[in-house]
Design goal:
The chain is α+β, with helices and mostly antiparallel strands. 21% of the residues lie in helices and 32% in strands.
Length: 145
């Protein structure tokens, strides 16, 4: 069973992910730290993590939610990757967050599990895009004919 350093939380515009012991290029790390910085699009990060949490908790074959499972987080220098399998192992989901999606901070190297429990999932669902972001996205899309 994985042991997290605490519980992941979102408070005062700060997302603190509780990580399990991880593996880094320097070897096993009991308290890994892969990134400290700011997301350029926090609503995308929030929706992506919440979606991964939904996938890990769902059985697509004979749907029966089981205890929540946790996504794997890996830092690869130029990107953070969160990925998971559904509870039935029939569906795989991945969220790649490239360096350009962050406003500052350095991305390290390593792999671990991240706690995305019910409290964090609920908090992530309340993160919304900044005013004007939706209009900018819609304006950039081609108009249907």
């Amino acid at each position: 069973m994985r042991c997290f350093a605490g519980e992941s939380a979102l408070a005062a515009d700060r997302l603190a992910l509780a990580l399990a012991p991880g593996l880094t290029p320097a070897g096993p790390e009991p308290l890994p730290s892969f990134f400290h910085g700011f997301a350029a699009y926090p609503h995308v990060v929030a929706r992506g993590l919440a979606t991964l949490a939904d996938v890990t908790a769902t059985r697509y074959f004979r749907y029966t939610p089981e205890r929540l499972r946790d996504p794997v987080l890996s830092a690869q220098g130029g990107r953070l990757r969160a990925e998971c399998f559904s509870a039935c192992n029939g569906v795989y989901a991945r969220l790649d967050l490239l360096g350009a999606g962050f406003d500052g901070g350095d991305i390290g190297f390593g792999t671990t599990n991240v706690d995305v429990g019910p409290a964090l999932r609920q908090a992530l669902s309340r993160v919304s895009p900044p005013v004007g972001a939706a209009r900018a996205l819609v304006a950039a899309l081609p108009r249907p004919r």
